[in-house]
Amino acid sequence: MKIDSAKTLRVFLFELAIYAVLVVTYFFFVLHYLGDWLHELALHHHYYYAGLAIVLIVGQAVMLEALTTFLLKLIGGRSE
Amino acid sequence: MYFPISDAHIHPAYLAVIGFLIGVLGGFFGVGGSFIAGPALRAVGLPWNFAIGTDLAHIVGKSVVAAKRHRALGNVDLKLGLIMAGGTIAGAEVGAQFIQMLKRAGNVNLVVSLISIAVYVGISSFMIWESWKTLSQNRARKAKRLKAKIDHSAFGHVALSIQKLHLPPMIELPVSGVKAISLWIILLVAFIGGIFSGFLGGGAGYIRMPAMVYVLGIPTHLAVGTDLFEIILSASYGTFSHAVKGNVDILIALVMNTGAAVGAQIGAISTQYFAGPKIRLFFVPLPLIGAAIVIYTLVTGQKL
Asked: pLDDT averaged over chain B?
């Protein structure tokens, strides 16, 4: 039981480390360049901004869910 | 990191950690977590209007992740969620109108604070009593070697009586194991939850999730997953409405969502290790935290 818990924790921490690297890359390459453009949109095109906000948050959530599920399967598979 | 839309400087790690914590709570209990996100965003200097709107946007993202995971575990009743979303959106509009009326009367803060404290404490007290009684009954069943139901509720007879009320159209919810229930009762439960959402802010999952269990008779795991699916629709509507009014910094919500994506999956998977009454008992502190925040605001005059 203790060995299983330690293994699960190790797998989770490994997943978190890979995930953190990907997310930091995402911050700098995507959010950094999107920022000014979204700011302009928020100031001058309220309805486009509102629609795009929903698309972005849902799109990112679907992508992150797929990524974390994939990482979990990949690492879980290797650790067995 | 600078966020130009709200003109705020916030460390992305802070946002990701807050998102992670709310993600775990949301995935496990099916709540939005506004009572943590709002004060957490305010604490780093984000104006109230942005804190409320951005929190809603983040709730959409977190709920997508958690609901997808719950759907994979068979915990989402799409039919029920779609019906409830309609009632919630209508109720939220009515709740927002109540706020406008109270603002005109000039006593909005006191009335909203007192009602919210009564609601939060009432829900927690009831859930302590019900979960405790159900767990005791389950222990007695086990002692008598009778098969204990996995998600039995001491309040289950009330839900059964409500399901027997014949107010056409009656609908079937096969995923939730409900053979027949009036459409109007589902809409009424969602509408009341929506009123609280518009009136007190946030997604009002702390009212809707218990109401689905105790009034509609939905099993706890399904109530959690379905509530998350319903929140995607109603919070999207709220996000759009707030974004048009200039209250959403979507960049902050996107960063928070990176932490929430992991947290929501952990929370959703964790529900599989606990029976319904235990999930309901663990839920008890959440409304009490909400009540404590409101009492603090009333006493000190400072919004958290």
From this structure: 82
- Type of residue at A62: V
User: A64 and B236: CB-CB below 8 Å?
Assistant: no
Contact B283, B210 (CB under 8 A): yes
The CA distance from B215 to B92, in Å, is 20
* Nearest residue to B251 via CA among A41, A47, A3: A41
Q: Where are the alpha helices (DSSP H) in chain B?
A: 12-29, 34-43, 48-72, 78-105, 108-143, 156-164, 183-200, 205-214, 220-244, 250-270, 276-283, 285-300
Rounded to 10 degrees, the C-alpha dihedral B192/B198/B203/B208 comes to: -10
Cβ contact, residue pair A65, B62, below 8 Å: no
**Which phi and psi (to 5°) does residue B248 adopt?**
-120, 125
In the structure encoding, which two tokens stand for residue B125, read together?
């007290």
* Contacts of B111 by beta carbon, 8 Å cutoff, 6+ apart: B102
What does the alpha-carbon distance between residue A12 and residue A67 come to, in Å, rounded to a whole number? 14
What pTM was computed for the model? Answer: 0.80
Question: B80-106 in b/e burial notation, b at 16+ Cβ within 10 A?
Answer: bbebbbbbbbbbbeebbebbeebeeee
> CB distance from B69 to chain A under 8 Å?
yes
Whether the link from the prior residue into B169 is cis, omega within 30° of 0, is yes
Say whether pLDDT at B100 is over 80: no
CB contact (8 A) between residue B243 and residue A65: no
Contact state of B60 with A57 under an 8 Å Cβ cutoff: yes
Question: Which site among B250, B256, B273 would you substitute to test the A interface, given the most A Cβ atoms closer than 10 Å to its Cβ?
Answer: B250
Q: CA B262, CA B256: separation in Å to the nearest integer?
A: 11
Average pLDDT (B72-90) is 89
